[in-house]
Design goal:
about 600 residues; mainly beta; Methylamine Dehydrogenase, Chain H; nine-stranded mixed beta sheet; five-stranded antiparallel beta sheet; 38 strands; WD40_repeat_dom_sf; WD40/YVTN_repeat-like_dom_sf; Vacuolar import/degradation Vid27 C-terminal domain-containing protein
Amino acid sequence: MGAGQSRDGDLDDSDSEGEEDYEHGTRQDAVATPFSSSEQNLASSSSKAGMEDIGSKLGNLSLTAGRTAADGNTPKGQWIIAEKSVSWEFTRVEENDDDEENNNDGHEDGGERNRSWKSWYLLVGNKLRVDLVSYGVWALKFPMQEDFQDFENEFRNCLFENTYLLEATEENKIKIFGKEFMGWAKPEIADDSVWEDAKDSLDMPADAKNLREDYVEPSRDIIQSLTMGARDHSYLMSAKGIEAVKNLPFGIQGKGVSVIFNEADSISYSTPKKAMLVRAESNLMVMRPIKESTSHSSGVHQVDVETGKVVTAWKLEKDGTPINMRDVINDSKGAQLDPSSSTFLGLDDNRLCRWDMRDQHGIVQQLDNLVLDWKEGHQFSRGKNFQCFATTGDGGIVVGSKDGKVRLYGTTSMRMAKTAFPGLGSPITHVDVTYDGKWVLATTDSYMMLISTVFKDKDGKAKTGFTGRMGNNIAAPRLLKLSPLDVHVTGNNPKFQHGQFSWVTESGRQERNLVTTVGSFTVVWNFRRVKESNHECYHVMRGLKTCYCYRIIPKEESIVDSKFMHDSFSSASPNAPLVVATSKSVSSFNVSKE
């Protein structure tokens, strides 16, 4: 997988004649694009006058539109000079503009709009180039290092102000990030020693070929979600019921027992949101929203996967008062394999708790319309805005919030987080954590953020942020993004969803890959390569180290979810099969194949 900076071609000397006309003290740059639509707009890279001039000239250009498939690192087109000398300027935008990717790269803006600002740009330091997306993929080529540096500094200041509604001063950066996390605001001062031990891996081939489907299983109904099992079966959720599929060494195949929801039954008041396997995967806990317009649920239904029947309809209450939950997960990374497990975790906007399926006397309940026991937890007064959570192998909890914060809770208390990472301003929509708790993957709409939780205490002993406070000199995160070219190919307003590690439930085993869905793409990163300090992406990109080396699996329809099978299915290959679910079918891929 070549680095992202090599994906879109170079603006070489033959493309840059006329640069000798550049005068020091002015801000003029060469502009080029490999792909563009008929809309003639160069957002955030020039003044209005410059945009009109470029637009008129673009109308006379014959642009090649030849990319037929999105690939991780091989473009199908070449840069075309649109204008040899233009000025650039950062301006305030007072109204929402409906451009192609619903963004204004580099523009400052106030109000709610800044919360959904999409940073589809790429600063290529070794080539003095800025790539961005606006009705095509554009590049600004700077003739001198100092001019590129001026642009970068002003751009980052505008980005900070646009995100936090504060001027980009040292005082305000400390206010947002805190002294312990200044490496997040200033990557050049961050302690990167935690990344040094990572070694490159050849588990996933470093070429640009699309992965081949090993097997495709059509669905009987429109798939809403995918629940992976580590044993014999995985499960497809639809509006009509739950469909079991067989887990095999090469992927998933065939049909097993089905649970059909009766329209007259109380379980059928809305489309199921999630199914969670419990008790050695003999039962499914099905979570259904109160109504279609909300993600919250007031109860869960326990389904016996052998008979396909609903065993219990559980109500969620605390001290006799109904409680809504946004999400539920197992107590720990491997708890679904434990036959004796009778508790699970719940999350709402301002609640984090543990539910118990036994009564107060320890007798497992199996009757209809019973109330789950609030075993422990905390109900915060307001302002947490929890969105998602995940657990480690020993039960540590990571929680992502709407304000971008990532909190780590230990195994002894849900009242106060051991560590709270400030985030980068974008709402966290999904989180995952490695089995050993050393790495957290947080998903936002436009990127994923890989965070190291490892630190050394005063005695020099290595710990994680789940067990103690991390103190000073915390490592800056790594970002995972799509290149501007692939952002453009994904279509209108692409969003990252469900970023997660490959699946490990055993101490001493290491996750190998990271996977996410973006529209009709499944995108896979090699975990070890992302951690590698000497990885080529990090030598040429500016700011927070960002990895653009990935492989893409394109589908014709939007993808519901993409997940790796359990690590136990990797005996015939370095990696377990990758399962990709669309609304119509489920496909299996071997990411280790050339």
